[in-house]
Amino acid sequence: MHSVSLPQVGTFGAWRDAARTLLSAETPPEDILWSFGDDSADLFGAKIPLPKGDKAVTASKQFISLANLVIWNRDPERFARLYAVLHALQRDKGLLADRGDPRIDRLHKMAKEVSRDKHKMTAFVRFREVSQPGANRRAFAAWFEPSHFIMEPSAPFFAKRFGDMDWTIFTPHLTAHYDGAVTFSDGVTKPPLPEDATEELWRTYFRSIFNPARVKVKAMQAEMPKKYWKNLPEADLIPEMIATAQARAAEMAAKAPTLAPARAAPILDRLHSQQAAKLETQDQFLIALQGCRRCPLWENATQPVPGEGPLDAALMIVGEQPGDQEDLTGRPFAGPAGAVFDAALEQVGIDRDGIYVTNAVKHFKFKPRGKRRLHQNPNRDEIQHCKWWLDLEVARVQPKLIVAMGGTALESLTGTREGLLRRRGRFEQTQDGIPFMVTVHPSYILRLPDAGLRAEEEARYRADLALAARSV
Amino acid sequence: MSTKSLDHKLAILSDAAKYDASCASSGGQKRDSRDGKGLGSVTGAGICHAYAPDGRCISLLKILMTNFCIYDCAYCINRVSSNVERARFSPEEVVHLTLEFYRRNYIEGLFLSSGIIRSPDDTMIDMVRIARSLRQEHHFRGYIHLKTIPDADPKLIEEAGLYADRLSINVELPTDRAVKDYAPEKSPDQIRRAMADVRVLKEAQKDKSHTGKRPPKFAPAGQSTQMIVGADGANDATILQSSTRLYSSYKLKRVYYSAFSPIPDASKVLPLVKPPLIREHRLYQADWLMRFYGFEVDEITANRNDGNLDLEIDPKLAWALANRTIFPVNVNTAVREVLLRVPGFGTKTVNRILTTRRHRTLRYDDLRRMGANLKNAKPFIHALDWSPRALTDTVDLRARFAPPPEQLSLF
Fold first, then answer.
1. What mean pLDDT comes out for the span A54-78?
2. Do A412 and A434 fall into the same domain?
3. Which residue did the predictor score with more confidence, A472 or A137?
4. What is the Cα–Cα distance from B212 to B203, expressed in whole angstroms?
5. Tally of CA atoms within 13 A in the half-sphere of A456 that contains its CB
6. Which family is it part of (chain A) (predicted)?
C-alpha cells in the first residue's frame, strides 16, 4: 500500500506528478491511498518514496482538462477515481470517448458539479470596499462559501477581471489575495467586513428590476439556490417581493387608465408636425415607393431599392432585382454582381455617376434559410406590378437609350424574355417607343463555372456596354 | 428633477427598464484587465449575477438614461401620455453606478436604453457619450449593450458600435400593422433599415483594408431585438415567420420574446390579462428548434389550424407526435439530422451518441447517462435492448405527456 498526501494549494500539479510516477511503475489503483490537506492521517507512512518505473505514461489533453475540474470536487474519492480511469486509459485509449461508461460518466458528473460551482462563484461573490485612506489602489473584500474546493482554480477569473484594484476573497478552506499577483493563505471563519453604502443602491436596483406581474419562483431558485442566499446582500428582500407581487399586479390591472398629463398633447402635436414636415421635403417618388404594397414582396424585404443617378442621364441601365446587399444598403448594384458591373463600366470608360442605374423589380425576393437568404426570381405578376415604378423612372429620366440586363429587365420592358441571347446587342424599341438594347445580367457571368468562358462572356458584356455608351 | 436622490432615480429608471427581456452578456470580444490599467473582463460566456423572483437573470445594470419620452407607444410605461414619475440620470451618474456595481461584482456591465428626449439624435448622442466615457476615460472592459434608437443618424449608430459589445433595436411587435397601431410614432421600415445598417457595419469590419489592417471591432457580440407577444392578435406562426426573417436578413444573435405584461397606468387599448408566460416559453423553444435543430417554421406550426403552438407540450414533442411515421428511429444508425428530431435529445446528447457509437452499440442506460430525457424519448427510439413496440403508435400517447386537465380554482 502506497500513501499519497496532496497539498491544499497546487493540488492538481501534485496529483499529476504522483500519478505519473505511480503509473510508471504500473501501480494498480487499489494499492494507493490518497489523502488531502492537513487532516491527512499519516497512518501508512507517507514518507516512504513512491515506486518509480520506466513505463511511458500518456494522458490526452481531454483527460487533463477533465481531471483539472474533478480534482477540486469535495468527493473524497476524486483522486482515486481519476487515477483508476487514467490507469485504464493506458490500455484502452478509446475509453474517454465512451459517454455511456459508468466510470467516465461519474467523472463527468463530478466535473460538472465543479464547473457549476465555479460559475456560481464568479456570479455570487459580493465585494465590500475596504480601501485604506491614502492608498493608491482601492481595496475590496468578500466572504464566500463554495460547495467544492474551487478558490484556487477560480482566482484567475477574479485577477483578470479586477486588475486595477486589490481584493481578498475569504473562504472556509482557502483565502486568496490579489495586489497585482495572486497569493493564497489558509481558510478562515466568516470575517467581519465593514458596511458598504453601495449595497443599498444594489438592493434598490434588485427590488425595482423585478416585474411583479410575472412570478417564477422555481426558475429563480433553480439558478440561484438558497444555499447561496445567506451571503447575498439582496436575497433577504426576496420573501417580501414574492409575498406582495400578486397584490401589486392586481392593483395595476384594477386601476383605471388615467388622463394623459397636459403636456402630452402639445408634445405629440409638435412631433407629428415635425415628422410630416420631414416627409414633405423628401422626393415624393421615393416616399411613394417606400409605401408600395402592389405585390407582397415588401413584406420580407428591408426596403425598396430605387434607381440611382442623375435625372437627366442619357443612358439608363435596368437590372433584375435587388439582392442581399442591395436590400440592406438601399442602393442598386451594391453586391457581387454590382462589382462585376462596376468593373466593366470602368474598363469601357463609363462614369457610373453619369448614368441612371435601376432594377425592374424594386424589392428583394428571397427565401429565408437559417442565417442566409436564398435569392428567388420574381414571377410574371411581380414584374408586372413593379413595371409601374420602372415606367415612372423612365418618364422622369427620359433616357436616350435603355440597356436591359437579363431576362427580367427584358420581360419588364417588352412583355417577354424570349430570345435574350439572340436579341443581345441589337437596338429595339419598347412598347412606349423608347430605344433599348439587351445584354446579359452580370450575375449570369458570375455563375459561369469555367474561368475561360467567364473571361469570354465578360468581354462580350463589355462590348455591349461600350456599344450602348457610344450610341448616346 | 435634480433634487431626486440617486437612489430614487435608480428606482424609477430601473423600474422603467424592466420590460426589456434581454439581459444576455455572452458573445462579447474576449478581453481582461490583467495589465492593471483598467477594470473588467469579458470571457465570452455570460454570467447571471442574480435572479429576481420573476425568474429573469440579472446580468447587467439595465437602466434607462431617462424615462421622459416624446413618443406615445401604447404598450410602454414611459409613453408621453402616461403619468408615471419621471427622472433623468446625468451621464456621470450612469458611469458611477456602472463602475461601482461592477467593482462589487454585482454585474457584468451596462445595458443602457432611453426614452426619446428632444430628438432621436440628441438622445443617441447622450448614450454614446456615456459609453465613450466608460471605455476611454475609465478604461472599462466589461460588457456594454446599447439599445439603439432607430431614427438616429447612422453615424451615431456607427460610433455606438465601437464602444458597445452588443447593439439592439427593438422591432417591438410582430407585424408592421401592429407597430402602426400601437407605436404610431415609430416606423417599421426605419427599424429594419437600422438593423440592416448594423449588419452592414459589422460585416465591413471583417474586410481588411489594402494595408492589411483591420478596422476597429464593431459590436462584437452582434445585435438582438425584442418582440412583445400577446399585445396584438398575431399568432405564433406569424411571430416565428417574423423571427425567421430577422435572423436571415440581419444575422441577429437573438430574438427575445416578451410576454406582454400589464404595466402601471396602462393605456386602455391593451389587454390587461396575466402575461402569457407559457406561450412565451413555447416560442423560445420553437426559436431554438429553428436555430439549432434544423426545423423549418412551417413544420413547427403546421400541427394546429390556428397557427399557434401547443401550450401543453413542447413543440418538438408536438411535431414528433404528429409525424410518427418516421419513428421509432434507431439510435445506433440514425444520422445526426434525424437524431436531432427525437424528443428528449438535445444537441449535446446527440453529439455524445455520435461519438460513443463509433466504439460500441448503445443501450437504453447509456442514453440516460448521456443526458437524454428518456421519458420523452422512449416511444420514439430503438436501442440495443429497447424497442418501443406498439408504444409509438398508441392512440393516447399525447395524454402521457400533456398535464392533466386543470381544475378550476375555487378562489
1. 94
2. yes
3. A137
4. 16
5. 6
6. Belongs to the uracil-DNA glycosylase (UDG) superfamily. Type 4 (UDGa) family.
Q: Is the pLDDT of residue B373 over 60?
A: yes
Domain end call among A120, A142, A170: A120
Residue, of B215 and B293, whose pLDDT is higher:
B293
Exposed/middle/buried for residue B170 (C-beta within 10 Å: 0-12, 13-18, 19+): buried
Same domain, A304 and A437: yes
pLDDT of residue A158: 98
Per-residue pLDDT, B406: 62
Question: Is residue A111 predicted with pLDDT exceeding 50?
Answer: yes
Cβ-defined contact of B265 to A258 (cutoff 8 Å): yes
Residue type, B204: A
Residue A56 inside a domain? The answer is yes
Residue B58 and residue B137 in one domain: yes
Total domains, chain A: 4
Other C-beta atoms lying within 10 Å of the C-beta of residue A355:
23
- CA atoms A279, A284, A290, A294: torsion sign: positive
How far apart, in whole angstroms, are the C-alpha atoms of residue A231 and residue B71? 42
A131 lies in the same domain as A104: no
Split at pLDDT 50, 70, 90, the class of B304 is confident
Asked if B408 has any chain A CB less than 8 Å from its own CB, the reply is no
DSSP class of residue A296 equals: G
- Within a domain: B270: yes
How far apart, in whole angstroms, are the C-alpha atoms of residue B14 and residue B64?
7
With contact defined as beta carbons under 8 Å apart, do A1 and A31 qualify? yes
Q: Where residue A310 sits, what CATH number does that domain have?
A: 3.40.470.10
Is A46 a residue whose pLDDT tops 80?
no
- Picking from B214, B248, B275, the residue at the C-terminal end of a domain is B275
Residues 171 to 190 of B: which have CB under 8 A from any A CB?
185, 189
pLDDT in tens, A409-428: 999 999 999 988 899 989 99
pLDDT at A201: 98
Instruction: Please write the tens of the pLDDT for every residue from A216-257.
Output: 999 999 999 999 999 999 999 999 999 999 999 888 878 767
Q: Are residues B213 and B71 in the same domain?
A: yes
Cβ within 8 Å, pair B189-A290: yes
A175 Cβ contact partners less than 8 Å away, ≥ 6 residues apart: A151, A168, A169, A184, A185, A186, A187, A188
Are A320 and A411 a contacting pair, CB within 8 Å?
A: no
B384 lies within 8 A of chain A by CB: no
Mean pLDDT over A426-446 rounds to 92
Question: Complex ipTM, two decimals?
Answer: 0.93
Q: How many other C-beta atoms are found inside a 10 Å radius of the C-beta of residue A470?
A: 8
Say yes or no: B337 and B269 in one domain: no
Which pLDDT band, with edges at 50, 70 and 90, does B411 fall under?
A: very low
Which residue of A lies nearest to B367 if distances are taken between CA atoms? A100
The whole-number average pLDDT for the span A335-350 is 95
Shortest CB distance from A303 goes to which of B189, B200, B362? B189
> Is any Cβ of chain A less than 8 angstroms from the Cβ of B261?
yes
pLDDT at B382 over 80: yes
For residue B387, the enclosing domain spans 315-401
Chain B residues within an 8 Å CB radius of A302: 192-193, 195-196, 249
CB B237 within 8 A of CB B307: yes
Same domain, residue pair B119 and B201: yes
For Cα atoms B304, B310, B313, give the angle at the middle one, nearest 5 degrees. Answer: 140
